[in-house]
Amino acid sequence: MNEESIKEQYDDKVVKYFLVATIVWAGVALLLGIYAALELASYKFNLGLQWFTFGRIRPLHTNAAIFAFAGNTIFAGIYHSMQRLLKTRMWSDAVSWFHFWGWQLIIVSAAITLPLGFTQGKEYHELEWPIDIAIAVVWVAFGLNMIQTIRRRKEPHIYVAIWFYLATFVTVALLHIVNSIEIPVGYLKSYPVYAGVQDALVQWWYGHNAVAFFLTTPFLGLMYYYIPKAVNKPVYSYRLSVVHFWSLVFIYIWAGPHHLLNTALPEWAQTLGMVFSVMLWIPSWGGMINGLMTLRGAWDKVKADPVLKFLATATIFYGMATFEGPLMSIKSVSELAHYTDWVIAHVHGGALGWNGFLSFGMIYYLVPKLWKTNLYSKSLAETHFWLGTVGIVIYMLSMWTAGISQGMMLNAVDASGHLVYPDFVQTVTRIVPLYWVRAFGGVMYFIGYLLLVYNVIKTIKLAPKAAPAVAGSSNPVLNVSVGDLVKSSHGEGPHRVLEGMPIILTVLAVVAVLVGSVIEIVPMIAATDQSSVEYANFKVKPLTSLQLAGRDLYIREGCYLCHSQMIRTMVSDVLRYGPANEMADSRYDHPFQWGSKRTGPDLARVGGKYPDLWHFRHMLNPRDIVTQSIMPEYKWLLEQKLDLSSIERRMSALQGLGVPYTDLEVSGSVEDAKKEAAALAAAVEKDGGPQGMADKEITALVAYLQSLGKQTEKK
Amino acid sequence: MGILIVLVPLALLLGFFFVGVFLWGVKSGQCDDLESPKHRMLLEKDD
């Protein structure tokens, strides 16, 4: 087969679709980001509407950025580069399209369920169980398509980019499945089988590696393909790229605990996470240098070509983020950085700089190629580049400043051992102006993006109407039908089939073993672990049915996105919030709610700090009590009826997971909740609070808040 | 912390899996030539 006819066979149609999806979802993700930023700058942007409050918009933004924008970028780049690197069409058109539409459907269902408050309450893993299953299915289809394509390759060598893609598939599948083991208690509600510290470990093992294997390795694969292609020079050192790959794959998986430094997590686990995180610095920089050195002697080209500018700058941001990450994983740095906007600066250097710019570079490279024309306007792309760069710099500088200032204020202790800024809100007021600056940086980045949209539309309009590419990619003769696919594996020589066997068999075996063992072992461990030594010295009361209902509301409203429930072992934390948390404190918490960002104060011991009525008034309008507060209003909690219809099912599910509810408590859960609510509401009424709150959601939430820090007793 | 009984072996298993894949790669000649692939990937004109 000559080169031309191989090329004819590539499926570029699905690549185009993924590219367009990338562009569309990028806009959605960025707009949501700007909106969330504005909500922090002024509470008024919450609009007093539950679907738009920060706690529900923020997960929508992160999911859109990660799974919709970055996800579609990855798929577009993989489907495009893989066919060329392996000199063969993707294995199955049917699977490619199933992948495409399945993924978009998942995104749409996320966009519907998250604002409605259906969430698991775990960051980047908010989507409820039916969507979790859909993700697993579509992801496996993608992996299968990829592995089968590798098997049918017409080029014996598997270029390093493809190794990165493969690691992405295998690891994300594993992470997603392990973190998704949950007990459904309704169509869109579930509890993870893990509780407290275990859930924290699983979640951050997942969360950190989602960054590693969804936002890093696949993009590195794209970098190793598109930089050489765009500059038309081979990668600086192929050997180094292979070393880069293998070292990342072996080190990344251990770094998760750096999200839990100075918490109740045992010291040795923290140290392990820290050491591996610091080790990551070396291969990451090896990779960055490799990417940049590919451009050596071609800087004049970089200057002239926006594609290269985007790709090169993305690589520099990769280097920056992977330098900053290990730094922040050092325990003493984490004392300052954790829970603050420094983390937000860090992730946006990665997301906007590395992922965003790599994606834009790829789009500017691919659109003219796939539509057989030239880019409509280089200078618009150039402007996009500068707007984007300045936008990121403004974003990061403002958030670094905000994070470090607030961290230092919160940690400041004077000579007499008192907090210098005892009022949390003082530290908030200080950084609110920076929230406006951040939003401004985001808007600049977004305007740059709009230029890309315009440029792309114009470019596609320039495309020759009867372009062979369009005809070729949709040519029915060349399209492989489902029937062909079944046949195709028999049609090949035995040699080919055998050669492909090791990968596919190993992958399938590993997946089977993992899924099997995880499903069997995990719930068992989760249950038996309740008897372990860490809990032996404490007596922990489980939540009452009303408090549990309140906790589910806390999760629904996304309070954990502004409030932590984990007092760290540091002096300033203890002075501000009370004794550092023990593992026992979250023993029965399915899911854990330790949080990762303190836009508001820690709530681990807020129970009993204020009278019930205080909370009613605070939730109705925080500014009635703390004039400078930026917390949203939660009026609807005082209007909506508390839904107790599934509380019995929920209690019984938790009972099954090892929470020591008696059968009587489970069967009487509705009655108990109503009784407790009536008493609480009556007391609030007597104190001059709002009337008729006994059957409203707020009562459950307040009951929960008042339980925080009250459940554990030393034996 | 009992969850580590799952997480650590899982991470190790994943590590071993990648070692296996790596060894397979070496054995099947993926690492024999670490010079020419970077030139060959450029040969295909992409338009």
Describe the protein's topology.
The complex is a heterodimer of chains A (715) and B (47).
Chain A (H helix, E strand, L loop, with lengths): L2 H7 L3 H29 L12 H33 L6 H21 L15 H23 L8 H20 L2 E5 L2 E4 L3 H19 L2 H15 L6 H14 L15 H13 L1 H13 L5 H6 L1 H23 L2 H7 L3 H30 L7 H34 L12 H39 L5 H6 L8 H10 L2 H35 L9 E3 L4 H12 L14 H7 L34 H9 L26 H10 L6 H5 L1 H18 L10 H11 L4 E3 L1
Antiparallel strand pairs in A: 1-2, 3-4
Chain B lengths: L3 H24 L8 H8 L4
Write a short abstract of this structure.
The complex is a heterodimer of chains A (715) and B (47). Chain A is mostly helical.
> First CA to last CA of chain B: what distance?
54 Å
Low-confidence stretches of chain A: 467-499
For the termini of chain A, the CA-CA separation is 78 Å
Query: Tally of extended strands of chain A?
Result: 4
Radius of gyration of chain A, in angstroms, nearest whole number: 26 Å
CATH homolog superfamily of the largest domain in chain A = Cytochrome c oxidase-like, subunit I domain
- Beta percentage of chain A is under 5%
Q: In terms of quaternary structure, what is this?
A: heterodimer
Molecular shape of chain A: globular
**Biggest interface, which chains?**
A-B, 60 and 35 residues
* CATH architect. name of the largest domain in chain A: Up-down Bundle
Total number of strands of chain B: 0
As a whole number of angstroms, the C-alpha radius of gyration of chain B is 18 Å
Structural class of chain A: mainly alpha
What share of residues of chain B is helical?
55-70%
The proportion of residues forming helix of chain A, as a percent range, comes to 55-70%
Extract low-pLDDT stretches of chain B: none
- Please report which band the strand proportion of chain B falls in: under 5%, 5-15%, 15-25%, 25-35%, 35-45% or over 45%: under 5%
